[in-house]
Design goal:
Structural class: alpha+beta
Helix content: 40-55%
Radius of gyration: 33 Å
Order of helices and strands: HHEHEEEEHHEHEEEHEHEHHHHHH
Strand content: 5-15%
Number of domains: 2
Largest sheet: 11 strands, mixed
Number of helices: 14
């Protein structure tokens, strides 16, 4: 039975080479459209998320400001100043916070290595800051640790571009540089990373030291801001509200006064991105699917022509006892086989195009297209549905032919 099916299919291929080639082209083009549109959508989404996560994942940044409301007899306009010790208080009082760090910063320190002199941004932070902000060191270095903080060691972590400005192409780890003529040991250099947003300059252009060292050298008591991370994104809002409650209790301001502590919740953008890319990918999928439907219409047309050309053959088969479902199975099988071959070729072409994207340097701007299992499943589902519908109606028409009338044609 299978051998007869394939013999018949090959006879049709030889008889209608051009028509079959055009039909296959429609299926291939439609498959490539669906697969590539969805793959580029996934790649763009991954690239945007990568850029956002350069700042840190599920982090919230807070800046102590001035009160905007009177509270318990105290006037508005009071300056709120938190301390490094308040970080321990917030961590103890708010279980949703998984990591927290105060951050001191200045842009007036002169960095010198040999004859190279620059004045970048310098930050003083606690050890948890590195992991929160994705400051990942190169293999030969490290970030600040608890011992550095406790002993107020003069060690520094450099952004990759700052390292190049100071040391060029040479290795910097284990070497000394001077901050306003004070020697510091370079313990690590940041791995290059993508970062599309910041609040005090890009990390690749910064130097980072331990917060206690910063306080000891520069005589600063109050940090510029603080950063905390929440492991579960759904609990960020609760953690934010609790920060106001805890600090307002200590510094006596209205816990509803959002101007006393200005907060940037970076997770709010994730909700927008989830909705945007869902709609965006649905749009791309629909556009690609419509292109594939056009190819399916071509398959349906060719199968209608095949039914007309083989009417007499169908009549003979039915006269000899073939059931309608056998006729449907034959024509539906041929349609699905054509669709399968076109889809297979389309997937192969799509993978080839995706492989070429990094070679042309486009991945930096649009991301690397991702032909994920979900993309493949969606494409295969649309392709199968198109093939099924394209073959079913001509096959049903063939199964309803009257054997006597078919033999007369």
């Amino acid at each position: 039975m299978r051998a007869a099916f394939f013999r018949q299919f090959l006879r049709d291929v030889r008889a209608q080479k051009l028509r079959l080639a055009l039909t296959l082209f429609g299926i291939i083009w439609g498959t490539v459209s669906v697969a590539l549109l969805l793959a580029f959508g996934e790649g763009l989404r991954a690239n945007v998320l990568k850029e956002i996560r350069g700042l840190g994942e599920n982090i919230v940044i807070g800046w102590p400001m001035r009160t905007s409301k009177p509270w318990q007899g105290l006037p508005r306009g009071r300056q709120i100043r938190v301390t490094e010790e308040d970080m321990d208080l917030l961590a103890a009082e708010i279980p949703e916070i998984s990591s927290i760090s105060a951050e001191f910063s200045t842009g007036s320190v002169r960095f010198r290595s040999g004859r190279n002199v620059v004045v970048p941004q310098l930050a003083g932070v606690q050890p948890a800051f590195g992991e929160m902000r994705n400051l990942i060191p190169e293999a030969d270095g490290r970030f600040m640790n608890d011992l550095d903080a406790q002993r107020r060691r003069r060690c520094i972590f450099l952004g990759d571009e700052l390292k190049t400005d100071l040391f060029g192409a040479e290795s910097a780890v284990g070497r000394y540089l001077y901050l306003n003529n004070v020697p510091f040991l370079v313990v690590g250099v940041m791995k290059p990373k993508s970062q599309d947003s910041s609040y005090s300059g890009r990390d690749n252009e910064k130097g980072v030291i331990a917060s206690r060292t910063f306080r000891a050298i520069f005589g600063r008591e109050y940090p510029n801001n603080f950063v905390f991370q929440v492991a579960d994104r759904s609990k960020v809002e609760r953690a934010r509200n609790r920060v106001y409650e805890v600090l307002s209790r200590k510094y006596k301001f209205d816990p509803t006064d959002r101007e006393a502590i200005m907060i940037w919740d970076t997770t709010e953008f994730y909700g927008f991105l989830d909705t945007f890319f869902l709609v965006f990918n649905v749009f791309l999928g629909v556009v690609g699917a419509l292109t594939l439907v056009v190819g399916g219409i071509g398959v349906s047309n060719i199968m209608n022509v095949v039914v007309e050309e083989r009417t007499k053959e169908i009549g003979i088969k039915m006269a000899l006892g073939a059931k309608g479902r056998a006729v449907i199975a034959q024509f539906l099988g041929e349609t699905l086989l054509i669709t399968f071959l076109g889809g297979l070729a389309g997937f192969a072409i799509s993978r080839g195009i995706i492989a070429l994207v990094p070679a042309f340097g486009l991945a930096e701007h649009i991301g690397t297209p991702i032909l994920s299992a979900r993309t493949a499943a969606i494409t295969a589902s649309v392709l199968g549905l198109v093939g099924l519908l394209a073959g079913y109606f001509p096959a049903r028409a063939a199964s309803r032919l009257n054997p006597v009338e078919a033999l007369r044609m």
